Structure formats: structure tokens, C-alpha cells
């Protein structure tokens, strides 16, 4: 399971599927990892005290994964050296953000409708509503 999926699994259990808190939490973890704060992230995770056994188990798995792979998670150094970060994070984000949003119970989307929703979601998450005027929306007709 790619590293992003471990974080998303924990966040969904702790905050709820599709919640803003889960999205923010994973984003914060990803940013900290990107700038080389793997040890700080692990220390922060160890201070958490989830109430349910399922969330505790997920947290233990996340801590174990980061601890065992910390030496390979030197993303700040990889970026400094000019290496790109692999597509696993992008694929995980696609699955967690797009699929989770569009494939909820009872939802059916046309391609045009899905594109509109995702465009608006990007504006929301990036807090960039000024771009709304320039956004081309495909016709639903």
C-alpha cells in the first residue's frame, strides 16, 4: 500500500469518509513529509490516543510504515537534487479525492457534470475563487 493510502485510511477512520478534517490532516502530513519532517510526523502520530480499536490499529500501521520507510522518505532531499516524486501520491490522491467524492452511495454523474463538480472542488480546496470567472464549463445539454 503506498504511503499516501496509509495516511488516508487513518484519516477516514479518525475523521470520517470525505470529511474536510481528513483532507486537511492528510494535506498537513504530506506537506511535512515533503519538507523532510518524517521523524516529527512519527513523533506527532505517537502522541495521538484514538479511542476505538480500529483507529488505534490503523494508527499503529501508519506509524510502523513511516518508521520502517523513513530512510526512503527523504522527499526534501530528492526535490533538492532535482528528482521528481513518484506518481504514487498522485494516484492515491486521485483515488481518495475524486473517486471518494464521485462514487458515494446513490450518485450518478455524467462526464460533464463530474468535470464541473471537480473544477469547483479545486477552486474550493485551493481557495482561489477569483478563477471562477475564467473557468470554462462544458455544456450539460
| Rg | 17 Å
Would you count the extended β strands for me? 0
Helix content: 55-70%
Structural class per helix/strand content?
mainly alpha
Secondary-structure element order, N to C: HHHHHHH
Mean pLDDT: 78
Distance between the termini: 41 Å
Describe the largest sheet.
none
Given the C-alpha coordinates, what overall shape results?
globular
Descriptors:
7 helices
List the helices and strands and how they pair.
Blueprint: H1 3-15, H2 20-34, H3 38-47, H4 53-69, H5 75-80, H6 88-102, H7 111-126
Q: Could you explain how this protein is built, in words?
A:
The protein has 141 residues and is mostly helical. It has a domain at 3-84. The protein has helices at residues 3-15, 20-34, 38-47, 53-69, 75-80, 88-102, 111-126. Helix 1 packs antiparallel against helix 4 (53-69), helix 1 packs parallel to helix 6 and helix 3 runs antiparallel to helix 4 (53-69).
Summarize the structure.
With 141 residues, the protein is mostly helical.
Amino acid at each position: 500500500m503506498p504511503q499516501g493510502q496509509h495516511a488516508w485510511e487513518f484519516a477516514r477512520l479518525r475523521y470520517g469518509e470525505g470529511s474536510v478534517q481528513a483532507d486537511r490532516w492528510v494535506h498537513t502530513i504530506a506537506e511535512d513529509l515533503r519538507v523532510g519532517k518524517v521523524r516529527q510526523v512519527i513523533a506527532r502520530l505517537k502522541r495521538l490516543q484514538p479511542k476505538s480499536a480500529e483507529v488505534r490499529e490503523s494508527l499503529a500501521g501508519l506509524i510502523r510504515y513511516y518508521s520502517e520507510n523513513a530512510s526512503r522518505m527523504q522527499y526534501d532531499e530528492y526535490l533538492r537534487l532535482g528528482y521528481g516524486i513518484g506518481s504514487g501520491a498522485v494516484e492515491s490522491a486521485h483515488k481518495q479525492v475524486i473517486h471518494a467524492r464521485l462514487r458515494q452511495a446513490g450518485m450518478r454523474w455524467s462526464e460533464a457534470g463530474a468535470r464541473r463538480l471537480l473544477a469547483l472542488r479545486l477552486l474550493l480546496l485551493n481557495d482561489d475563487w477569483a478563477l471562477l470567472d475564467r473557468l470554462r464549463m462544458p455544456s450539460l445539454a
